[in-house]
Structures are given as structure tokens and as C-alpha cells.
Amino acid sequence: AGIGSQATPAGGVDAGRASHIQLEAIAISRRFGDFQALEDISIGIEKGEFLTLLGPSGSGKSTFLNILAGFDAPSSGKLVQGGEDVTHRPAEQRNFGMVFQGYALFPHLTVAGNVSFPLRVRKVPSADRSRRVAQVLESVGLTAHADKLPRQLSGGQQQRVALARALVFSPDILLLDEPLSALDKTLREQLQIELQRIHREFRTTFVFVTHDQSEALALSSRVAIFNHGRLMQVGKPADVYTRPGSRFVAEFLGQVN
Ligand code: ADP
Ligand code: MG
């Protein structure tokens, strides 16, 4: 690597500009029997963006996220990453972090043990592991809780542990499926602010799923709006809000929770 590709302490912003599409979905469809859950979804996920998949329940958001994660494969279409077809690459071989609603923590491991787990799997040496775990716990505000068990934490704190565990190995992309939906309004708003801060701090690409319009508009750099398995519109929150491309988008964004 030459001088131009030297990594910055913050994690290589310049490298990001050179190839700004990190993962590209091309004409992804998914059928379950006769049911078309996704139809012809094409979108380029940009390095470092906070992309939100927004749509009503049953619109195909989780199905699409599972295909990005490698938990499921499309019936047709493909995923391309760095010029390679990764459509059928197993989830373990994609360097993606995942946080789901009620994502299970290991109940017998402490907070630090949970967060350190992905590093143990990757055989990171113990000293590096401790340093990295301390750093990530600090970022999500859990330093004081490092030695507690999950059951000693609140729901919001458990979700922060899940977030820390997904970020600890510096994933290429963090996939979040309605991670805040089970939390009450106050806690949800607090964690929304934290998610934005963490996104800025880690500079990881976030693909975030929600059915909550105001959450999507508040958090994202781009919103992709789904309905009945189709991608209706993609754009910056302000643009989709002020220039909805269809009656569905206008009405859906107009619904205030
Ligand atoms: P969302 O996350 O937007 O609420 P999903 O992606 O979970 O929606 O589901 C989209 C549609 O696909 C739903 O109608 C759901 O019932 C259907 N679906 C999802 N997974 C399966 C499956 N494994 N088998 C059959 N139908 C499924
Ligand atoms: Mg879902």
C-alpha cells in the first residue's frame, strides 16, 4: 500500500471514498412457496452511511436484512461486495455485526464476557481482547457494569451489550433489525441519540430496520422505503419526506406514531 492508502487513526475515510459502494444488492427476489416476499430489490449500500429500511410490518425488511446477513439466500438476484459475488457466502464468512430485537446474550457470561466472545472466536490474543472490550464498553457507557450478568441489567442496557458485542470486532457493516422496538418511548429516544453518536464514532456502515417513520427520519442518512416486498423509494430523509414518489410513501410518512 502506498502513502495514499495509509490508514487514519479513525479508520480510513479516504479509502472509503475510492470505492464508496460497500455492498450492492442487484435485483434481489425471494419467494416462499407462492408468496413473493421480495421483488426485484436493487440498492447500493454506501460505505459509512446510516441506511434505514423503513416499511410497514410484513413489507419484507427482515427478509432483505437476512439475505444481506447471509442467513437466507435470494430466489434470484445477487449480492456483490468488492467486485465479488457474495450471494452464497455463509454468514460466518461475512464480517458483519448483527443486533436484533431481543437478541439473546449468553446468560452465564458477564457483560465483558459477552462482548469479548466474538474476539475469542476470532482467536484474538487475551491482552488485545481486554483492551478492545474496555474501549467498546466505554463507548456504549457500560464500563461500570462490565462484571454484571445480563439478568442484572435493564432492557436498554442489555441492548447496549448486544450493540457492543456486534461492534467489538470492527464489522464492515452493522445490521440492526428493530433493535429499539421493544423499549419504551423514553428509553428508545435515548438509545436513538446514542446510536447516532456510536455511528459517528465507529464510522461503521449501519443498515437499520424499523417500521417507525419518525425513528427513520431522525436517525438515517438515507431511507429505503419498502411496501409489499418492493422498494418504493430511496433517498435522504428530507427528500423523501418533502418529495414522496408515490401515494403510498406520502401516506405512510404522513402517519405520525
Ligand atoms: P417485515 O420485517 O417487514 O415485517 P418480513 O420480511 O419478516 O417483514 O416478512 C415479509 C413477508 O414474508 C411476510 O408476509 C412474512 O409472513 C413472509 N415470510 C417471511 N419469512 C417467511 C418464511 N420463512 N416462510 C414463509 N413466509 C415468510
Ligand atoms: Mg421484521
Automatic annotation (TrEMBL):
The keyword Signal is annotated on this UniProt entry: no
One Gene Ontology term of the molecular function aspect: ATP binding
Residues making up the signal peptide according to the UniProt record: none
Keyword Nucleotide-binding appears in the UniProt entry: yes
Top-rank taxon, per record: Bacteria
ABC transporter domain sequence ranges: 21-253
Keywords on record: ATP-binding, Nucleotide-binding, Transport
Family the UniProt entry places it in: Belongs to the ABC transporter superfamily.
Protein name: Spermidine/putrescine transport system ATP-binding protein
Source species of the chain: Labrys monachus
Lineage: Bacteria, Pseudomonadati, Pseudomonadota, Alphaproteobacteria, Hyphomicrobiales
Residues of the full protein shown: 18 to 274 of 393
